[in-house]
Amino acid sequence: MSDDKKAQGNSGKVQWQEGDLTVTRTCSWTAPGCHDGCSVLYYTKGNKLVKVEGDPESQYNFGRLCMRCLNQPELVNDPNRVKWPMKRIGERGENKWERVTWDEAYDIIEKNVRNIWRDYGPESIVTAIGTGRNTWSIVPKLTYSAFKSPNFSMGFLAGDSCYLPRAAAMGTMIGDFFIVDASQLDERRYANPEWKRPECIIIWGNNPIISNGDGFLGHWIVDMMKMGTKLIVVDPYLTWFASRADYWLQLRPGTDATVVLAMLNVIIEEGLYDKDFVDKWTYGLDKLAERVKEYSPEKAEEISWVPAEKIREAARFFAKAKPASVQWGLAVDTQRAGVSVANGICALVAITGNLDVPGGQHLIRTAFGVDRLAHVSSDWGYGELSPEMRAKRIGTDKYPLFKYGLCATARGDSVLEAIETGRPYPVQMYWFESTNLFICTASEAKRVYKAMKKVPFVVCVDPVLTPSAVAFADLVLPAAMSIERSSLRTWWTPLRSISKILQYEDCKTDEEICLDLGKRLNPEQFPWDTVEDMIDWALKPAGVTYKELEAKVMMWPEVHYKKYEKGLLREDGEPGFNTDTGLVNLYQDIFDEWGLDPLPSHMEPPYSPISTPQLMKEYPLILTAGSRPWEFFHSEHRQSATLREFHPNPRLTINPETAEKLDIKDGDWVWIENNLGKVKQVAVLDPGIDPRVVHGEHAWWFPEKEAAEPTLFGAFESNINILTTQCTTGPTGYGAPLKNTICKVYKA
Amino acid sequence: MSRNGLLIDYEFCTGCHSCEAACKKELNLPAGKFGIKLAKNGPFKLNEVDDKWELTYVPVPTQLCNLCGDRVASGKKPNCVQHCQASVIEYGPVEELAVKLNNKARQVLFIP
Ligand code: SF4
Ligand code: SF4
Ligand code: SF4
Known about the structure:
The complex is a heterodimer.
Chain A: H1 3-8, E1 15-18, E2 21-27, E3 39-45, E4 48-54, H2 67-70, H3 72-76, E5 86-88, E6 97-99, H4 102-119, E7 125-129, H5 135-146, E8 152-153, H6 164-173, E9 177-180, E10 200-204, H7 208-211, H8 219-227, E11 230-234, H9 240-243, E12 247-249, H10 256-269, H11 275-281, E13 282-283, H12 285-292, H13 297-304, H14 308-320, E14 324-328, H15 330-333, H16 338-351, E15 361-364, H17 387-390, H18 401-404, H19 412-421, E16 429-433, H20 445-452, E17 457-462, H21 467-472, E18 475-478, E19 487-489, E20 495-498, H22 510-521, H23 531-538, H24 546-552, E21 554-555, H25 563-566, E22 584-585, H26 589-593, H27 615-618, E23 621-625, H28 641-646, E24 651-654, H29 656-661, E25 669-674, E26 677-685, E27 693-696, E28 741-747
Parallel strand pairs in A: 7-8, 7-16, 10-11, 10-14, 11-12, 13-22, 16-17, 17-18, 23-27, 24-26
Antiparallel strand pairs in A: 1-2, 2-3, 3-4, 5-6, 5-18, 9-15, 19-20, 20-21, 23-28, 24-27, 25-26, 25-28
Helix pairs in contact in A: 5-22, 6-16, 10-13, 10-14, 10-16, 13-14
Chain B: E1 4-9, H1 18-27, E2 36-45, E3 53-61, H2 69-73, H3 79-83, E4 89-93, H4 94-101, E5 107-110
Antiparallel strand pairs in B: 1-4, 1-5, 2-3
The complex binds iron/sulfur cluster (3 copies).
């Protein structure tokens, strides 16, 4: 048999033997991992994962994997994982636990929930997740249907600054989510004759080859660069993409609105927009044109530090490129003007005629409409709550946009205030699932730590014992990892099955825990006998069962372009966008009704050279934070010996000029300090960052250190979010200054 | 018979470390040892006029690299080649790779 034939012998198979190893073809969607769902081959021996390879037959990741999935065995086989349900027996923080059965754990939860229902009402129960994973579908269902509470949250994430500001903007302006079209909708991928290679992509505030956010795989952009795609990069740091960009706009963190509004200024003033599209499909260009007159490139330069001429050239380059799109990221959200930045970018891609054209900004929905279990669908079960209960969702009274965005959550900052003040009502129970609260998502970490200690009943569901579990939990439930779970993945496409291959100790899957508790607390809303029944139900729109999907591994939908011309976006079947006007709202009447500015504008970070010039004398550097490293996903992966070999300690990136003035050498431990506290990281000298800015890494804890307080796995040593603020959002309630505050740096 | 080698298009190597990690897994290497290891140039500004930068990664095979003899015999690509996220490593007979080497700048051919 030739080599080629031998390799193809397993083509299309879901499971086979290679020597003493069993190989299973499936999809991996955290934990461990990231936002994404790459196609993998799991090599197992009995009940043990031996190695992971990419699936070479997958048109999603083409057999490739990042170092995190390659290192999955170290995480999956980690002997320090949570093995069974544990009840706290010491004080909170003492790390003393007693093993209990699942039934005992469920009894404790049920008793607490029923007591809270009776004494305080279901709204006193708050749940939290971290970021985009299966829990973003399961935990809403658990919250709304099992606990009967409207308060599902992204933990204490200030301003809900992760995708939600962008989602809110897309919701009211365009009515649909959009994504860069890397032909990921079509199984033939780049060979689909209808698809066009983007001539230009703006990479705005993210480094997608590392972060792979929002259902997009960053290396697809590298694939397209090889075919000729050109780049504009908006980033305070010289990322790999920036080093290969035609235009790198190195802005001051937190000033993105001025840059996008100045680009719009140039494009509108010079008539470089798509007049045909604007006439037919948008609303309010004249008002937007009036507004952007206030943002000349010169004005933007003053605020953002980006040379005016560069903004002009980049704007012209983008406007003339056909097709073109914007790959945007977290930095858009993490500023007080977050919604405005997102509004500006939506306007930019709309008026240049790039919405839903091949190779442009694709308007995307989940493959086959499968969003339960498979997608970050935060509304599962929400509709069944009574209107009175929905009205109690924390934060919506003050911030109406939270009611209408494409993702409904209880507002993190408002939950914090509710815990601290008991208003609008006290929080009696806090349930956090696969999120590491004050280590990762929360700002002002010490404040959140203090608040969480006050909540009377706290449950943590996680595969590992985190600092948050030790510090706050009364009960820890062991969550299964991806390889131990039967589930689904779309977000966005294709439709993929996730196959359970292993069982780790007493772990249960997020899906099982939700169903078990649902059947105890509110059985009408959980009409399924098993998780497989629930998955089959979720798969109904695709017309397959879970078993049938597993046999195919994945299913690709059909791709449709220019859906707004074809009546494919609106429920009434008419052409147009899924908005109140049927058009792209460049001017937002609804914002007017809410007392918000209907047009985008800039808002300074609360601490900055413009907002607090006096304080800059004490804290002269701008602190940005939270860029993703290759090795870790947020606070995950610190247990892996291999990944820590590559990245042993938290890193502060600092320009060599600045370092020299401060007598800091590459590899020195340094203090990063401001009015909220100080933390220690290792200096990395890098001329790719502006001398006036430093970048600190987020989400660091040290699983190798003592678990019990006061050490708490080193929770307070390097945690950059000790220096960031809660409850300092913009007027929409979305967007907080997580990546744009100030600090000083000195040798430790 | 021709020797085999690894052709690397370092213009598009993103420095993602997948090759290093994949190789460590394939060869089962402990901390400190590598079958292929990234080298880095930059970042530095190429000149003051046009704001272009040098930032280049190149993975360099070490003496531990055996070109994934067992994998290749079973019909697979070498582990670093398959997992390279930018698909910039190509494995094959040196004569064939040499022709490709001549077709494009910013490449390097290793014969481990
Ligand atoms: S991007 Fe990396 S961590 Fe995420 S699913 Fe793919 S291989 Fe795994
Ligand atoms: S060919 Fe195999 S042994 Fe050589 S560097 Fe690549 S993975 Fe390592
Ligand atoms: S895997 Fe490929 S892109 Fe990543 S560092 Fe290695 S050679 Fe470069």
